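job 3f2a | input accepted
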Amino acid sequence: MKFVLEVDLQPSASADDRARELGRILRYWAGNLSHYALEPGDGETVSDSAYREVGRWSVTTGK
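job 3f2a | predicted structure (63 res):
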C-alpha cells in the first residue's frame, strides 16, 4: 500500500505562511484518516484554510 499526499502551496506566500498552511493540512488529515479504510482507491481532495482545492491524497497498491 502507498499513501500519496500532493499539495500545491502558493509560491507568492511567505515561507512561514506555506509552512503554517501545510502543517494545518497535515494535522487535519492525520486526524481525519480514521474515517477511511485506507485501501487502494481511497482518496479525497485537500483544501486550504480558505477552502480552495490545493491537492489530493490517495491510496494506491504501492511501489
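job 3f2a | The chain has one helix and three strands.
job 3f2a | closed
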